[in-house]
Amino acid sequence: MLGAANPSTLETMANMASLCRDEGKYAQAESLFARVLAERKRLLGTGHPVTLHTMGSFAALDLKVGKYAHADLLLREALSAFEKTSARTWDRYNCESLLGASLSAQKRYAEAEPLLLSGYAGLHERESRASFARRTDLTRAAESIVQLSKNWGKPGQAAEWENKLQTGAPERRAP
Questions:
Q1: Phi and psi (nearest 5°) for 82?
Q2: Torsion angle defined by CA atoms of residues 107, 59, 124 and 122, in that order, rounded to the nearest 10 degrees
Q3: Which of 49, 71, 75, 93 has minimal Cβ neighbours within 10 Å of its Cβ?
């Protein structure tokens, strides 16, 4: 009714894409994210915060389905835009964490660790201002550090982060 390029239409499509991703309807989510991202890039540009948020959401889908090359591409593009503007936002640190998780899944542990730790630290600093729904990003970031630690053969570090997750108080400091 409002048209495919209307901001409300795009927001609804993005929300539907996230819902499809969370429900495991990955093909539907991918199609929706691709359409929303293309329109937002065209209308707002690649550096707009809403476009960057969409890139992070699309990359989160890519990680779920093992499309690491596409996730890396989206996340590096988003991080480059954040660096140009010196943005220190939730989305920036979430992108760092997601890129770290992607690299970790590819067994590129030395590249992944600083991104995971920096992403977690940035999210943790902003936790009190984040919506309840967004705080799951912080838990996922800590879980990614646990997974990296286990896969990289650092059981002590993994145990420390698992303990922090269980007690509900992951700390910002590096393990």
A1: -60, -40
A2: 80
A3: 49
CA angle at 146 for the pair 141 and 150, rounded to the nearest 5°: 145
Predicted TM-score (pTM) of this structure = 0.89
The answer to whether 81 and 41 have CB atoms below 8 angstroms apart is no
Dump pLDDT digits (tens) for 35-53. 999 999 999 999 999 999 9
Q: Can you read off the two tokens belonging to residue 57?
A: 């959401």
Q: Which domain, by its residues, includes 120?
A: 92-175
Tally of domains in the chain: 2
Separation between Cα atoms, residue 149 and residue 139, nearest integer Å: 15
Find where tokens 């570090």 sit: 157
Q: What is the distance between the alpha carbons of residues 150 and 163, in angstroms, rounded to a whole number?
A: 14
